Amino acid sequence: MGRDELDGLLNLCLDFANKMLTEHGEFYPFGAKVSSDGESGLVQGSTGEERPSEQALIALMLEGFRDEARRGTIRACALCVNVALTRPDGERVDAVRVTLEDANEALNLSLPYKIGFRGRVKYGELERNPAQPQVFRPNPY
Fold first, then answer.
1. Exposed e or buried b for every residue in 93-104, given b needs 16+ CB within 10 A?
2. Which end of the chain is more exposed for a tag (fewer CB within 10 A), N or C?
3. Contact 49, 116 (CB under 8 A)
4. Confidence bin at 1 (pLDDT 50/70/90)
5. Could you tell me if 79 and 31 are in contact, meaning their C-beta atoms sit under 8 angstroms apart?
6. What is the pTM of this model?
7. Rounded CA separation 109/3 (Å)
8. Would residue 109 be called left, alpha or beta, if left means φ above 0 and alpha means ψ between -120 and 50 degrees?
9. Do 49 and 40 form a contact (C-beta atoms < 8 A)?
10. Is 50 exceeded by the pLDDT of residue 70?
């Protein structure tokens, strides 16, 4: 598993989030994964509801990722969520947050954005922070 695969998942997520923000001004949480044979693609959760809660979708996707990781059918995953961040100065900004994870690391990457005139999306600087593993946890036994 390498950084290239995590970067590929990040790019997949940011491209799709940009498409949704440009076309709709928002997006529901979605994910991406790299299968054990190296294939990558986007994934979406469904609760069967027309407008499910974001928390329900996130929980559903994390549960699916954990199951696939236990079975060895994925080697990396990403969860992408539209969030509001609070800056140290108290300013609130919208951001695309992508949480990347494989067996070796977990990262939160946040890309602040503003939607301006005619729906044009303007992005800030990508911020990178360590994250707590939620999918590829070491086996305690």
1. ebbbbbbbbbee
2. C
3. no
4. very low
5. yes
6. 0.90
7. 14
8. beta
9. no
10. yes
Q: Is residue 83 within 8 Å of 110, Cβ to Cβ?
A: yes
Quote the CA–CA distance of 5 and 7 in Å, as a whole number: 5
Report how far residue 138's alpha carbon sits from residue 120's, in angstroms, rounded to the nearest whole number. Answer: 42
Residues forming beta bridges with residue 111, ordered by sequence position: 96
AA identity, residue 68: E
Task: Count the residues in the chain.
Answer: 141
Secondary structure of the chain in HEC code, one letter for each residue: CCHHHHHHHHHHHHHHHHHHHHHHCCCCCEEEEEECCCCEEEECCCCCCCCCCHHHHHHHHHHHHHHHHHHCCEEEEEEEEEEEEECCCCCEEEEEEEEEEECCCEEEEEEEEEECHHHCEEECCCEEEECCCCCCCCCCC
